[in-house]
Amino acid sequence: MHVRVRLDGANPRRWHVALLNRLSGLPGLAAVSVDAAPGPDGWPAQADLLFRLEALIFRLAPNGSRPVPPADLAAWSRPASPDLVLDLCGDAVAPCPVWRVAYDGGLGETGLLASLLAGRVPQLELLEGGTAVAAGRLGSDYRGSIALSFEDALTRTATIVAAALRDRLAGRPGAATPAAAAAVPVRAVRIPVSRPARLVARSLVGRLYRLCYHAPHWRTGWRALRGPDLVALGRHPADGWQVLPDDGRRFYADPFPLAVDGTTHVFVEEFPHATGKAIISAVRFGADGPEGPPVPVLEEPYHLSYPFVFARAGSVWMVPESSAAGTVDLYRATRYPGGWVKEATLLSGVVASDATLLEHGGRWWMFATVRDAPVGAPPGSGCHHDALHLWSAPDFRGPYAPHPANPVLVDPSFARPAGRIVARDGALIRPVQDCAHGYGRALSLARIDRLDPEGFAQTILNRIEPGPAWPGSCLHTLNAGGGIECIDGSGRASRLRARLSARSGA
Question: Which Pfam families would you find in this protein's record (predicted)?
């Protein structure tokens, strides 16, 4: 198969080159070429001004949207007739099938820009005629920045295009569905003159806020389970939550309770604001709650979080998130709740968030969201929250093989894991984070309808938000064990108060 990519030759970008390289490496694809004539609408100069202002104000380093010289496309200048055209502009005409990239119905990069400026979470559809051969909602780690949201969306666009083309080459039907809306070409978007001023004001407010507060400062909530849990309730309990105390100079998040030999410990991410690097700590719970503050049990040179702990084969095991290292690692406790030693690297070369294990159907499954960018890639190189990948293995120690349909889901509202998967009334219930409008803004409960080597499907049953029972702006993890149930979410902690406490010895 020969694929031709129609792009705006008047405005070639680094992401175009990355996409061409990625497609050229797909097995079974004979050739990739470009049609680099100028696009039909042009790119609004005001958008470049906005991007430059954001780069200055927020100290950004744009990557994928950065322009490249037209000579960088020379390697793909082939005159042969294509079998498929990937249309990034919305104006391609060809005797062969054409895949058009649409964002909320608007074609090309101007369609993406219009969606972001309207405050939407862009819905990408890869359209062939009136049918969407692939689709997904595009998340961003940086919802406050149009420039970085734009780059995250372009990175995930490449993910979806490559996966759809891989399926076409393999003869798989993909996710063909009727298009959500007729694709209408979008003219160049005029950016309001007031927008740069608002960005400056927002930046100043943010800087003042960071001088006074740790942002974010997460809190861990807990309660004794004496009745239905959150999965059964589908809402906050009437008796509310108690908060695991902290000293204001650190926060505790990602709680995982586990009972071993009749004793319950809660494992948490401990994040000292002074170091900016998290470790894993544990606190013992008695009849009246925590018996002292959490105590560090595992530290690495890189950031650790989401301590997925479980008992199996006569030992206690942990799979903490170590996406900063580009691995998913398995640890075993030699002096529980401490003495953790690394037993295996389950995955490597992947930026995977919140790996969650499940034994089902005679195999072990791993759920995680994957950032489609290498370790250490700059902001705007892909989102951590929107692309769910699966792996399976005959044993929890591996070896793990990727699901052939990865990513099995692209949607920041329902992809990222939020705790252990639980069995309930013959069904598997998966807590998921809703990150569509910011990291960990709400918690949803999803029923797994299909999980096998050929496919995955889920249905959202409930959505639980912060509110009077859990004040704050986020709700992001749910786990139960040992007679207690835990959640977490963000709050505020005054830097000034912490400094005064440190000086007074409080």
Answer: GINT1_N (PF24793)
Let me know how long the chain is.
506
In a domain, 200, yes or no: no
- Residue-wise pLDDT for 122-179, tens only, equals 999 999 998 999 999 999 988 778 888 999 999 999 999 999 999 999 988 765 555 5
- Domain ranges, residue 332: 207-504
Residue-wise pLDDT tens digits, 469-485: 898 888 999 999 999 99
User: What CA–CA distance (Å, rounded) separates 101 from 106?
Assistant: 8
Report the C-alpha gap between 144 and 69 in whole angstroms.
29
Residue 412: closest CA among 226, 152, 194, 73: 152
- How many domains is the chain partitioned into structurally? 2
| The pair of three-digit structure tokens given for residue 154, joined into one six-digit string | 């372009």
Secondary structure of residue 498 in the 3-state scheme: helix
Q: How far apart are alpha carbons 27 and 324 in whole angstroms?
A: 29
Give the separation between CA 63 and CA 233, rounded to whole angstroms: 45
Asked whether the bond before 399 is cis by omega within 30 degrees of 0, the reply is yes
